[in-house]
Amino acid sequence: MIAPNVRMRMPKFSMGRSKAFAPVSVFVLGTLLPAIATACPMCFSGNPRIRAAFFSTTVLLSLLPLGMIGCGLVWLHRTGKLSFRDEFIESDELPKAPAPAQASTTQE
User: Fold this and answer.
1) What is the dihedral of CA 16, 21, 24, 25, to 10 degrees?
2) CA distances from 26 to 16, 35, 37, 76, 91 (A)
3) Cβ distance 50 to 42 under 8 Å?
4) Residue 95 has pLDDT above 70, yes or no
5) In sequence order, which residues have a C-beta less than 8 Å from that of residue 50 and are 6 or more positions away?
6) Phi, psi dihedrals of residue 89, rounded to the nearest 5°
7) What is the DSSP string of 66-89?
8) The whole model's pTM is what?
9) Which of 8, 39, 101, 104 could be cross-linked to 43 through a Cys-Cys bond (beta carbons 3.0 to 4.6 Å apart)?
10) What whole-number distance in Å separates Cα of residue 49 and Cα of residue 45?
11) What is the pLDDT of residues 18-32, one digit of tens each?
């Protein structure tokens, strides 16, 4: 015998609490997390040489991707210019090929 069509009963979850909980939890974590996550003591050292080293490293690592993108664009421009140099020259403007040399006959 085939079992009758029985609807499975799914538990009902209230979405009201979870919708209200998400923004509150994001706000609380956003305000408390920076206070918990302190940087290492070396980053904010009183020594000016260490602070200058961290600052210069930050500048270097910020500009490095821009420099790589710029070098890639320059490389693409140069290789594209070389490979497409003669692409748009009309065929009637091309120099004519030299006539083939006549075969010389030697008499003995």
Assistant:
1) -160
2) 16, 15, 16, 45, 68
3) yes
4) no
5) 42
6) -80, 135
7) HHHHHHHHHHHHHHHHHHTTTTT-
8) 0.42
9) 39
10) 9
11) 677 778 888 887 787
